[in-house]
Automatic annotation (TrEMBL):
Highest taxon in the source lineage: Eukaryota
Composition bias, Low complexity: 66-76
UniProtKB keywords: CBS domain, Chloride, Endosome, Ion transport, Membrane, Transmembrane, Transmembrane helix, Transport
TM region positions: 147-171, 229-254, 275-297, 303-319, 331-355, 405-430, 442-461, 519-540, 546-565
Gene name of the encoded protein: CLCN5
Protein name: Chloride channel protein
Amino acid sequence: MFQFRVSWFRRHSDRGFGGMENPGYCTGSFDGLHHPSDDDDDEMVDIAGATLDFSSTDDVPPLSTGGYEEYSSSSSRAAGMNGNGPSKLVDPLEDPLPGVGTYEDFNTIDWVREKSKDRDRHREITNKSRQSTVALLHSVSDAFSGWLLMLLVGLMSGALAGGIDIAAHWLTDMKGGVCLIGFWFNHEHCCWKSNEATFQDRDRCPQWQSWAELITGTSEGAFAYIVNYLMYIFWALLFSFLAVTLVRAFAPYACGSGIPEIKTILSGFIIRGYLGKWTLIIKTITLVLAVSSGLSLGKEGPLVHVACCCANILCHLFTKYRKNEAKRREVLSAAAAVGVSVAFGAPIGGVLFSLEEVSYYFPLKTLWRSFFAALVAAFTLRSINPFGNSRLVLFYVEFHAPWHLVELAPFVLLGIFGGLWGALFIRANIAWCRRRKTTRLGHYPVIEVLVVAALTALLAYPNSYTRMSGAELISELFNDCSLLDSSQLCGYKQPANTSETGVGNSLADRPAGAGLYTALWQLALALVFKMMITVITFGMKVPSGLFIPSMAVGAIAGRLLGVGMEQLAYYNHDSFIFKGWCSPGADCITPGLYAMVGAAACLGGVTRMTVSLVVIMFELTGGLEYIVPLMAATMTSKWVADAFGREGIYEAHIRLNGYPFLEPKEEFEHSSLTVDVMRPKRSDPALAVLTQEGMTVGQVEALVESTHYSGFPVVVSQESQRLVGFVLRRDLLISIDNARKRQEGVVSASQVVFTEHAPSVAADAPPPLRLRGIMDLSPFTVTDHTPMDITVDIFRKLGLRQCLVTHNGRLLGIITKKDILKHMAQIANRDPDSILFN
């Protein structure tokens, strides 16, 4: 492992404007790149600023790999078999070279080229399939490989999600005690095996003992409470320490949610190792530890990252996905759907989440395969049955009472609260994360995690609603009270006639009792605690999702409002608002429904999801009749949050990290032209170009060495500047290096030609090097007076990495995706240098 230094970035980031820039690496957004010192407990910073390991073989290997050297040496021997001279001129078009057409780390893929390569491959297979039975079978297997890959992704992701759920539940319960008949049983499973447990006290059984009972022999009294309190803090610190240490030591990319980076990768950016096997292993382990530590985070976002890691690893089993970055991103889009499917038990919601929130390119074929993969993953998770209730999620509920039109007003009120909370959370969290990057706080991630974990445990334990896990809290808040429910939230005064019931199995509205008032105070304190602690927790160097904490905030607010509405209806059932539909003894208001609507509103305010969020919540509850309240709250939440800023939390983190992500939802409203954005500017050096003939190998190598551009336009001549094509720096270097080994006579004085026919050379001159095969003969061009809004649309819809600018056929300059992002940042009065990568 090695560490990039800030000096490397400074040396490579300030470049001229001749061609397409090579990726810069870490400016102010990654100020944690520093020389290790004794007073720092960690050198790990945000994703691109971590101690990275580029020796992974998960992705396309670099230039100097054994396979390439072996290929080159064997080809060189073959070329020299017939005497000293070469048997023929080497043409990369006729004899493809390993490495040509691949991309370096932190670069953007060329979607057009990748799709063209796949069409050529498919056309070749189709033509061959008509010639022989073997080729036909190969064609069938090629068509079937995509579905097989989806099956494997669904099976692997579902199995991992089931294991994570079981392990997290077990370790969470371990903070409170241990099962005497088997330490591997969680609290619920331990008491299932007990004959002494009753339905009312089903969580109490002699087989499960708290740490106070084990250490002091009693579970009552102040000393026993202190022992349990200290053990809770001890386990929370231990789990969080293990999580951050494993992330720091083995897989820096395993921290955070992963969704911002996955969105960037799906847009065409390459982050090698982010979806590798070590990231998968460490993220799976540390996700269990982080959730079990009691930190205010969820596992739903990281499960999307886990599913994408599974997909990326399995892609290497199939040639067409291993060798084509665009095809691989189709699989990753489906994997994102799988992640949400196993996180919420919502296969359809997962497909819509991938389509609405994370995917950049989502053809109809990917929609079908996403649906199939989400189905397989949900079936696998259901077969494992991690919660022991034959459900896919922990907080599955069913409400029996219908909602009424008057209740739309409080539902909209919850939507307003969700939008305000979402806007506030995004601003506060981004400000905190920016402070983490720009101060010494970012140099001590281990200490930060331990301090936050200790603070969370210290404040959470006294309140039963913050002590329980986020999923259990949401389950409690969604719950609809029944006659045998012993929860404090069901602490109503019992009516004189206990036969009064509402619709179905639900109870009629009742006056609040002392237990309910106590629960409401605890929930109000839990709401304030969750809102504050989640701001500083999300973004730490442990796996951390945002779905569950956001839903918990909304569910608490919704339950409080629901109980308030319930009591209002009970004491004012004769008023004009409730008269006619809320008669005495009826079950008019369902507080659990308000909790569900509030959860959707807050999650929508933070992420700005709409359609997929409503479907996910509908799949959680199984109630079709509650779609309208969910839609009203979610849409209101989005409108209110958008009034304060159109970015969701994931887009905000993408911008904070400086990723080259061209947001498809953002409108470009400025009236600038391409000549205003292109490089070089009037005061800059001329564009660095190659000519189609007349340059020697030495001159080309000198040009490549003296610049750091990722590609060069090819023109007819320096005088005419008529455009011929575009060649990538990586392909150029590989081809020249390979030609020196395979084609005898290629020296620095050899001519480099990009023409269709090699020019005539003198008898004593070295043979020319033909590189037409690596040149893009149809690079995308726009004129210098093309409006920038059209150019931005071209980049978005075609996935371009660069576009050449011409005037009357003459080459003027170049526009890259980074140039567009910098220009958009300037228009929005943001620092254009915050776009770190090309």
